[in-house]
Amino acid sequence: xxxxxxxxxxxxxxxxxxxxxxxxxxxxxxxxxxxxxxxxxxxxxxxxxxxxxxxxxxxxxxxxxxxxxxxxxxxxxxxxxxxxxxxxxxxxxxxxxxxxxxxxxxxxxxxxxxxxxxxxxxxxxxxxxxxxxxxxxxxxxxxxxxxxxxxxxxxxxxxxxxxxxxxxxxxxxxxxxxxxxxxxxxxxxxxxxxxxxxxxxxxxxxxxxxxxxxxxxxxxxxxxxxxxxxxxxxxxxxxxxxxxxxxxxxxxxxxxxxxxxxxxxxxxxxxxxxxxxxxxxxxxxxxxxxxxxxxxxxxxxxxxxxxxxxxxxxxxxxxxxxxxxxxxxxxxxxxxxxxxxxxxxxxxxxxxxxxxxxxxxxxxxxxxxxxxxxxxxxxxxxxxxxxxxxxxxxxxxxxxxxxxxxxxxxxxxxxxxxxxxxxxxxxxxxxxxxxxxxxxxxxxxxxxxxxxxxxxxxxxxxxxxxxxxxxxxxxxxxxxxxxxxxxxxxxxxxxxxxxxxxxxxxxxxxxxxxxxxxxxxxxxxxxxxxxxxxxxxxxxxxxxxxxxxxxxxxx
Amino acid sequence: xxxxxxxxxxxxxxxxxxxxxxxxxxxxxxxxxxxxxxxxxxxxxxxxxxxxxxxxxxxxxxxxxxxxxxxxxxxxxxxxxxxxxxxxxxxxxxxxxxxxxxxxxxxxxxxxxxxxxxxxxxxxxxxxxxxxxxxxxxxxxxxxxxxxxxxxxxxxxxxxxxxxxxxxxxxxxxxxxxxxxxxxxxxxxxxxxxxxxxxxxxxxxxxxxxxxxxxxxxxxxxxxxxxxxxxxxxxxxxxxxxxxxxxxxxxxxxxxxxxxxxxxxxxxxxxxxxxxxxxxxxxxxxxxxxxxxxxxxxxxxxxxxxxxxxxxxxxxxxxxxxxxxxxxxxxxxxxxxxxxxxxxxxxxxxxxxxxxxxxxxxxxxxxxxxxxxxxxxxxxxxxxxxxxxxxxxxxxxxxxxxxxxxxxxxxxxxxxxxxxxxxxxxxxxxxxxxxxxxxxxxxxxxxxxxxxxxxxxxxxxxxxxxxxxxxxxxxxxxxxxxxxxxxxxxxxxxxxxxxxxxxxxxxxxxxxxxxxxxxxxxxxxxxxxxxxxxxxxxxxxxxxxxxxxxxxxxx
Lengths: 555, 555
Description:
The structure is a homodimer of 555-residue chains.
Chain A: H1 24-38, H2 63-73, E1 78-79, H3 82-87, H4 94-101, E2 111-113, H5 118-131, E3 133-138, E4 158-163, E5 170-174, E6 179-183, H6 188-197, E7 200-201, H7 214-219, H8 227-230, H9 233-236, E8 237-244, E9 247-250, H10 264-267, E10 276-283, E11 285-286, E12 290-298, H11 301-313, E13 318-324, H12 326-336, H13 345-354, E14 363-371, H14 374-390, E15 394-397, H15 399-407, H16 413-420, E16 423-433, H17 434-456, E17 460-469, E18 472-482, H18 488-505, H19 521-543
Parallel strand pairs in A: 2-4, 3-4
Antiparallel strand pairs in A: 1-2, 5-6, 6-10, 7-11, 8-9, 8-10, 12-14, 12-15, 13-14, 13-17, 16-18, 17-18
Helix pairs in contact in A: 2-5, 4-18, 11-14, 17-18
C-alpha cells in the first residue's frame, strides 16, 4: 500500500513533515500585514492537541459485529484503536479543523475497515448491512465540505469508516483506446507515477492531489487545476464500478452512448451515499514534454476576464487560466515579500508599473499551455501573450508560473499556520455563467467582507477565476478573519452562510468542485428543486434502501 | 408555427416534395447492380397507400376527456381527425415504415394535442393525468427506434400524442455567456436560422436535422454529423426544463457543478418517459466563415482508422471524420455512377488507382475543418492531408465534400425509393472503444450479412466510422436485403436482432445516437445491468408515478 496515513497530519492539512515553509521573517511580515489590515493585534489561537491526548467516545461496535467483520476482512483490517479512529474522524473542512484541533472528538467512526480488494469491500458491505452499521467510504479524507463525517443515523448501531486506500492497483492499461483502469482507492501521486512510467498522464491535479484518491475525485465530481485543458473528472471517466448494498452497478466502457440516461452521472457526485466506488476506467493522455506557465498583470479584474474570453475564442490549447482579483493579487504579493532581503525587486516593479495604470486594482493571471513540441508551445504562448496584451496585460514571464508550480499543492498548509496565529481562512467556490460572473464575484466578496465585519470585527475577502468554460467560469473565494475566542464554529457558519447565500442569489451553483457534503446540504434544494431532490432520493432509496451509505450527506 | 407537418411524408422520410433525385437511368443502374449483388431479380414491393385510404382504429378518447382537453387547450388544439392521428401514429423506423405503408394502422394515438406554450403543456398533462390518458411527446417524429409509438399501457383509457412543434420560440439570447434558450419544440432549420441571423450556430446536424426538434435531440441523446468538432447534444446543453406529471424539473444554468449527480443527464436520454422537455439553454458558437470538407481514399479500412487516430493526436480542429468501409465505399461509388454519361471519370480514376493498391478494400474518408480565417483553415487542412497521406491516404480534393454537403440530409430518402423496389435498407449504430473497434466492425458486418442470407437469401452489409472520440468511435452499420413477400417485420426483426446481438457481444452500446425506444429495449438490460435498470425505473416512478409518459419505451 503506497498510501501512508501515518505520514499525514490527522488534524491539519497534508504531510506532517511539510508546511508553507515561510521563514521566520516572512511569517512575521505576513502576520504584521494581516494585523494591520484587520486593524487590530492578532491573538494566537489555541494550539492543536497531539493525537495521544485526544479523547474519543467509546466504540459502539459490538463484539459480535466486530467478529463478523474480522471473519471476512481479517483481524488487522478491522481497527478500533484511537489513532485509526481519530485519523478517520473528520475531513479537512474549516469546521472539521476547529473541532479536531481541540482534541475532544464528539464524533469518530466506531471502527475503521481496511478491505484489501473489491471482494473484501463487498463482504464488508454485507456484514455492515447485517449488523446494522452505517458505512462512510473514506479515501484520502480531504473533503472540505464535511463529506466524510461519521454520522450515526437513526436505526443504525454504529458507524464504520471504510478506508479504500488499499485498493490501489492498476488493473488494465489499454494503450490502443488510451484508457487505464484503476482500483479507486489509489492516490494521485501513485496514479500519476504508474501512468508516467508508461509515458501517460491523467492530467487531474486538484489541490488535494497529493492526498486524495480516484474514488474521491469521482464521488465529489472533482476538477483539477489544469481542467481548462484536461476537463473535470467527468471528462476523464469512461466507466465506473460501484458496490452498493444491493449489489454492483457497473457502467459500460464506451466513448459515448444514447442508451437512456447516462448512469455514470449518477455515480459522479454521489459522495459515497450510494455505495463504494471500487474501480474506474479513465481516458489518459500522452504526457506532454513541455509545460509553459506564465504570469500577466492586468489593470483590473474585468480586463483579465476579457483576456480569458479572448484566449478561449482564439481556441488556443490553454491548460490553465487562473485570474486573481485585486485583493487576492495583493495577498499573493504579500506572501512573496521577503523582509530579510534588503532590495525588494517586486516592490520596485510594482512602483514602476503603478505609473502605467497597474495600481490598487491590478489583477494577476497565471496561464499555461502544454504540448510535445517546444516550438509549437512557444509560438502558441507568444500568441496567447499578444492576446492578453490587447486587453492591457503586462507579461510577467515564467517566474510566477515556476513559483506556482513549486507551491501549487502547498497553499492549504497556510491554513494551519494561520489558525495557530488566530487567523481563520476558509474558501468556497461556485460557477457562474459569464453574464452573471462580474456581479456574482462582486456580491459574494462583499457579502463575505460584510459578514466578517459583523461576526469577526474585521476581515478580508477575495476571489479568483480558476476554471473556464465557453459559457462561464468557476470563481473561487477566500475569506480571512480574526478567529473568535469562543463559538468559533458558529462564527464560521455565519460567515460561510453569508457567502453561500450570496452565491445562490447571484445564480451560482453551491459547488463547482468541492461537493456538497454536510456544509452545502442546506443550499442544495434551492439548486436542484423539489423534484430534483426527489430524484436523487429515489436513486438513493433504490441502491441503498437501508440508508447505510454515508448518512447525512447530500440528500 | 414554422413546422408544417402537412409538407412531410406521413409514411416515409422527410418532405413530400423531396427525394433522392436519382435520374431514371441512375435508378435503373442502382437497381441492376443491387440485383446482381443479391444474385436474383428484384420484386417490386407493395406500394404505400395514400393517407385517405388509411384505416384507423376508432378513437378511445371519451367525450368527457376530449371536453376537458378542449377546455384547457382550445378546440383547434385537440384533434381526432384521421390525418392528424395517422401523422402521429409512428416514427421513421424500418418496421414503422413497413406497418404504415400498408395503410392499416393497428396503432394510432386517440388524439393529437397541440399546446401552444409551456403553460398549455402543463395543463394538458394535468388533464391527461386526471382522465387516465397516456401521453407520447411528439416532436419531429423522426425516431428510428420506435420512440414515439402510441402504446396503451394497462390501466390507461387512451393515448394521446402531444405535438410540441408549436413551442418554437427563442426565449433568450445571452451573447455574453454565448448561450441561447429555446422552447424545445423548435425544429433544426428554424433554430439554425434564428441563430444564424445573429451570427451564431449550434452546430448540431443529425441526419434528421430538417425535421427533428430540439426536445427530441435531448430526449434521444442525439449526436450530429459534425460532433467531432461540436460534440453531441450533451456537450451543448447547459440546462433544461422538463414538465413531468409531478411538476417541473429545471436544472441550473451554470457551466459546471459538483452539486451531486448532474440531473441534466437524467433528462438527456429520457425519451419522453419522464415528462415533456419544454425549454433548453444551449451553448452556441460563432458561425464559422469557412467550412472545408475533403475526401481521401485509403487502401483499406484499417489504414483509414489509423488516419483518424493520427488526426486526433495532432489536435487539429476536425469537425468531422467519416470513414466508409470497403463495402460502403463501393455502394457510394455505385450511387454516384451515371450511366447516361459516355465517359465515367470515377471509373477511370478507380482503374488507375487500383494499380497503386487502392483495390477492392479501398475505403473513402470525408474529413472537415471549420474556422473563421481561410488561411488558417487551409493550413490546417494541408496538415490534415499530410497526416492522412502518411497512412497511405490519396487526397480526393473537395469534390466528395461538396457532394456530401449537398446530399447530407438526402440519404434517408433512399430507403423509400428502395422499399418501392422491394429492397430493404436499415441502419444501426453503436460505439466501441478503439481496441474493440476493428473486431466489432468485422463481426457485426458479418453477423448482418449472415442473417440476410438466412432470412432473405441474400444481402449486403457495411459500416462507417461516423463520430470519433479519444477512446473510441461510433460505427454506423447499413444492411440491405431483398424484402420478403410476407412477414416482413419478422424478417427485419431477425436481421436486426443478429446485428444487435453482435454489437452487444463485441462490447458496443445498444445505441450511439439513435436511442432505445422499443427497438433496442430488449438489449438495454445487458448494458445497464439489473441495478442500472432499477435506477432508471426509480427515476421514472418518482417523476411519472402513474406511468403515463411515453409508455413502453426505455424501461
